[in-house]
Write a structure and sequence with these properties.
It contains 12 helices and 12 strands. It has 354 residues and is α/β, with parallel strands linked by helices. The protein has a 7-stranded mixed beta sheet with strand order 2-8-7-6-5-3-4, with helices on both faces. The protein has a 5-stranded mixed beta sheet with strand order 1-11-12-10-9, with helices on one face. The chain binds pyridoxal-5'-phosphate. Pyridoxal-5'-phosphate binds next to helix 4.
Length: 354
């Protein structure tokens, strides 16, 4: 007789995180997953090629020491304040597994990155969301104590809104919160401020960064987290021994060392972002003040879902999002000027003439 398999109840019950569409066939203008439209630093490609021709028969350095040393230089901190991950999603998983056990609870703002609640579900933990105010600030309720609360997540800049809380505000929230706070800075290289300095002021504040968006290395999978060394020690016990491979360590180290490439890329994206936001505004959309490489656009009369589908028929992919109690909208990644012009041209033809 065959025995049927049985996943843990918390796994069987969950739906699983669904990432943005990655079409395989056809030619799409992809403005749906916040990838960088430009290629990464040539130094990163060269480093990956060099790493591929030497020593792949050996395991990589479990701590990605060369990356930590280079990043420590760039940010003016010590290498033992840095933990590397297989993308920053890996770091979010490590943090959740370190702090949140079965039956315990984590908190995050809503609408925000949907993965946070998925991570709680995998742990068999509860996920408690606190709604942003209509102006995308957070009420003190985010910091209120609650039984079994073990971890807070805060995407800053936030997705899908692109809005950013000031470091002073984040510190205020973190200091009242009865548990550690992970500030997810996946988009921070496109913002005006960041929370790296807060890590020094409070051992319960951790900051995660990604090389996927601002360094144009989404396909490589590399992220890093900054926290006080005694926190890094605990997190390191939870990670896979070899969570970053030799190619990604080499590429990420070269990329973080090429800050001139980052500055030039940022300049181009910010320029296109303001053009995109302005045009959408002139089409009758409400557009939040984005500090990221995407904009969040809502419309009072045109249906965001219909626009999403019509755009897709024309081979333009944007992210349609709806959250109960919030106006549905479109999250549009900042592409090249040519991609954004093509998007705006088609979008305008889909809107009723005003
Ligand atoms: C894209 C994204 C990440 C994940 O980045 P990876 O480094 O590619 O894993 C984390 N948080 C937010 C809010 C993101 O949008």
């Amino acid at each position: 007789m065959t025995q049927s398999f049985k996943a843990r109840p918390s796994i069987a019950r969950m739906r699983g995180y669904v990432p943005g569409e990655q079409p395989r066939g056809g030619k799409f203008i992809k403005l749906n997953t916040n990838e960088n439209p430009y290629p990464p630093s040539p130094a990163a490609i060269r480093a990956i090629e060099a790493a591929a021709t030497q020593g792949l028969q050996r395991y990589p350095d479990p701590l990605a020491t060369v990356f930590r040393e280079r990043a420590a230089d760039v940010f003016g901190i010590d290498p033992d304040w840095i933990l590397c991950g297989n993308g920053s999603d890996d770091l979010l998983t490590i943090v959740t597994r370190t702090f949140v056990g079965e039956g315990e609870c984590l908190r995050y703002p809503r609408p925000s990155y949907v993965l946070y609640s998925t991570l709680a579900e995998i742990q068999g933990a509860a996920a408690e969301s606190v709604d942003f105010r209509p102006d995308w600030t957070l009420s003190p309720e985010f910091s209120s104590s609650s039984d079994n609360l073990r971890l807070g997540f805060l995407a800053n800049p936030n997705s899908p809104s692109g809005t950013c809380l000031s470091p002073e505000e984040v510190l205020r929230l973190a200091e009242r919160l009865p548990c550690p706070l992970l500030v997810d800075e996946a988009y921070v290289d496109f913002a005006e401020t960041n929370c790296l300095d807060l890590v020094r002021q409070n051992e319960r504040i951790m900051v995660s960064r990604s090389l996927s968006k601002s360094y144009a290395l989404a396909g490589l999978r590399f992220g890093f987290l900054v926290a006080q060394p005694q926190v890094i020690v605990e997190l390191s016990k939870v990670k896979d021994s070899y969570n970053c491979d030799a190619l990604s360590i080499a590429g990420a180290t070269a990329a973080i060392g090429d800050q001139a490439w980052l500055a030039e890329n940022r300049r181009k994206i910010l320029h296109t972002r303001s053009r995109l936001a302005e045009k959408l505004g002139s089409f009758g959309f409400q557009v939040t003040d984005s500090q990221a490489n995407f904009v969040w656009a809502t419309h009072d009369t045109a249906s965001a879902h219909t626009l999403y589908e019509r755009l897709k028929e024309k081979h333009i992919l944007v992210r349609y999002m709806s959250y109960t109690g919030w106006q549905e909208g479109l999250r549009v990644s900042v592409g090249t000027d040519e991609q954004i012009d093509a998007f705006l041209h088609i979008l305008q033809s889909l809107l009723p003439a005003t």
